[in-house]
């Protein structure tokens, strides 16, 4: 499919004015806050349950107005409407991009597009809800013990086998919602083709109470299919080893039927693997892998937390979709955050962006976002095939606070590079522990430990924004020789995101927020955020190199000299 040329953002007047401001830009968060009592208020926004404070960003009203003008010139809202209506905005794969349809309420009045809309001949809402109902029914059976393994025992462990979007989403949400997991159920996640992963994740499991979910959109991913075969082998060997099943083809296939289900868009391939299509949950090519956690790819999580909680996750997603669709641009949080990222990447030359959850249960959120953001926006051609006209996708990374404070925050505070950072926290922790003893010095007995944690959250964004001047350092009686080393420049941009608690809905809201930030940035850059051709070459070469690694001399000879020498060394080192 050919697509019309995107509007080049760099050709707009607003972009040119931003470039001229950036040329002599001297941010002054201290001064801006001192002279403008309304700054925090004006730059704090609400999206569903999320309170988002943008005021500690390197932003003025003039810059914000120009960024918003860029969004209007590019027509970000128009492209979002096109996306949710099912236009094929994934042009290189000629596909609709409809992850927003995965979370439309079943009985929603006033939905846009209206309930029952049809895309490429498919009644999207009907299919989404038929699949959801099937997933919910299955989850209920597993949770109630109605679904049993081949020897009649109820399932205690679910092992999700998938990679990329078929792993990162489920594992992140499972970890985020651990307090909602049904007692007696555990989910483990196998992704890496390093056999250590299957080995470790099956270690100690009882095969009679283990259910494997093979999650793969294409059901053609080497890692996942290899791991699924290893898991099937493990299951058979374990069951045969204890005499739980006889060594017959029928017993083996009965075991697979009771211990393997699949999630895929390719149900024919699922059947070829030996999994009954009755035990398979489908989705569609208009769900991108990294946008698929709210499709049947989330089945492992639905089993763990139950359909009611999952409905809440979906309603959180939908609330942010609605915010993105309806909020005026000036208050549209995903658009504003996407524009800020454009400001930092394209004008202030930031290379990376940190995401720092102050909520331990969100510890996999940065890893999840790495695929969402970088597989989406790490592109150098635009959707019409022409070169990108400006830098695209920043490097996203992060770790939970406060761990990061004792690792890499040094660079955030005093390094030579600017790293914009999103700080994410919740007001009410799942476990409100008190330090009854205190430490006899700084920490009072009975201290609310979450408050201590949050004090760090607030302190870090404050320190990054306002720094510490040489005079302030001197005033502490610091020896002159170390004053420069102990000075903090400040003006390090941060966004603070605060939610009441890490509920299922809030988790959905956070994911949708970042999905639409990605969308905003990709739209401004004119790139197709929904393909991922950049992962293909490595996959092709791995297949081509495999014979060489397995000792085929001709295949080894055909490699470049570095690769050849490395493989030869590897073969040499093998016992
Ligand atoms: O290789 C990249 C990728 O295609 C991702 O986009 C996707 O999430 C992942 O592989 C897994 O693909 P699948 O779900 O088809 O196994």
UniProtKB/TrEMBL annotation:
<dbReference type="GO" id="GO:0051156">
    <property type="term" value="P:glucose 6-phosphate metabolic process"/>
</dbReference>
<dbReference type="GO" id="GO:0005829">
    <property type="term" value="C:cytosol"/>
</dbReference>
<protein>
    <recommendedName>
        <fullName>Glucose-6-phosphate isomerase</fullName>
        <ecNumber>5.3.1.9</ecNumber>
    </recommendedName>
</protein>
<feature type="active site">
    <location>
        <position position="406"/>
    </location>
</feature>
<dbReference type="GO" id="GO:0006096">
    <property type="term" value="P:glycolytic process"/>
</dbReference>
<dbReference type="GO" id="GO:0048029">
    <property type="term" value="F:monosaccharide binding"/>
</dbReference>
<dbReference type="GO" id="GO:0004347">
    <property type="term" value="F:glucose-6-phosphate isomerase activity"/>
</dbReference>
<dbReference type="InterPro" id="IPR035482">
    <property type="entry name" value="SIS_PGI_2"/>
</dbReference>
<keyword id="KW-0413">Isomerase</keyword>
<dbReference type="InterPro" id="IPR018189">
    <property type="entry name" value="Phosphoglucose_isomerase_CS"/>
</dbReference>
<dbReference type="InterPro" id="IPR001672">
    <property type="entry name" value="G6P_Isomerase"/>
</dbReference>
<comment type="function">
    <text>Catalyzes the reversible isomerization of glucose-6-phosphate to fructose-6-phosphate.</text>
</comment>
<feature type="active site">
    <location>
        <position position="539"/>
    </location>
</feature>
<dbReference type="InterPro" id="IPR023096">
    <property type="entry name" value="G6P_Isomerase_C"/>
</dbReference>
<feature type="active site" description="Proton donor">
    <location>
        <position position="375"/>
    </location>
</feature>
<dbReference type="InterPro" id="IPR035476">
    <property type="entry name" value="SIS_PGI_1"/>
</dbReference>
<dbReference type="Pfam" id="PF00342">
    <property type="entry name" value="PGI"/>
</dbReference>
<dbReference type="GO" id="GO:0097367">
    <property type="term" value="F:carbohydrate derivative binding"/>
</dbReference>
<dbReference type="InterPro" id="IPR046348">
    <property type="entry name" value="SIS_dom_sf"/>
</dbReference>
<comment type="pathway">
    <text>Carbohydrate degradation; glycolysis; D-glyceraldehyde 3-phosphate and glycerone phosphate from D-glucose: step 2/4.</text>
</comment>
<comment type="similarity">
    <text>Belongs to the GPI family.</text>
</comment>
<comment type="pathway">
    <text>Carbohydrate biosynthesis; gluconeogenesis.</text>
</comment>
<dbReference type="GO" id="GO:0006094">
    <property type="term" value="P:gluconeogenesis"/>
</dbReference>
<keyword id="KW-0312">Gluconeogenesis</keyword>
<keyword id="KW-0324">Glycolysis</keyword>
<keyword id="KW-0963">Cytoplasm</keyword>
